[in-house]
Amino acid sequence: MENRKTHSNNEELRQMRCTALIEEINAKLQELKEYGLNEKDVVDHKHRPHTLLPLIIGRNYKIYLGTERQEIRLQPLIKAVYFLFLRHPEGLLFKELPDYRKELTEIYLQLKPNGLTDRVRKSIKDVTDPTLNSINEKCARIRAAFILQFDEYLAKNYYIDGLRGQPKKIALPRDLVIWEE
């Protein structure tokens, strides 16, 4: 009789501990959701390799992944937007993009030193106008370029992303970004 009572108490303790652990896991999942991840991302993360490749920016401003130097091809304005976000690891709010128009123009001029056409000036103005969809289009093209090279799980470290109303940023640790001189 005593043995059955001890077993019952042990089972009850085990059940309580399991319930507490599940509540803890659910709280952590909720915290991850607040950072933009969902349960599928968590499961995917558990079953995938965690190796991020270095992002290499060549002297000619070409973007390469890893020591194999797999090129990520972007049009000049899209590449300028990408470099703007690389320069700001803390992220940028889309509504504050007009404040970065001059910096974006300077970056573009490094990529295309022949000067600005009226068409390019308008494109830069549009991409920094938060009332237009241009910045979202550029971010979608950047995202697509990286997804061509990786699956979604790894690619999300390289493209511009963030929650609505929060700063958008590139998650890649900056010690993995190499600017060649």
Architecture overview:
- By secondary structure, the protein is α+β, with helices and mostly antiparallel strands.
- It has 2 domains: 2-46; 55-179, Arc Repressor Mutant, subunit A.
- Helices cover 51% and strands 9% of the residues.
- It is built from 7 helices and 6 strands, in the order ααβββαααααβββ.
- The strands form 2 sheets. Strands 3-2-1-6 form a 4-stranded mixed β-sheet, with no helix packed on it. A two-stranded antiparallel ribbon has the order 4-5.
- A hairpin with a 5-residue loop joins strand 1 (55-57) and strand 2.
- Helix 3 (76-87) crosses helix 6 (134-147).
- The longest helix has 33 residues, at 2-34.
- The model has no long low-confidence stretch (mean pLDDT 89).
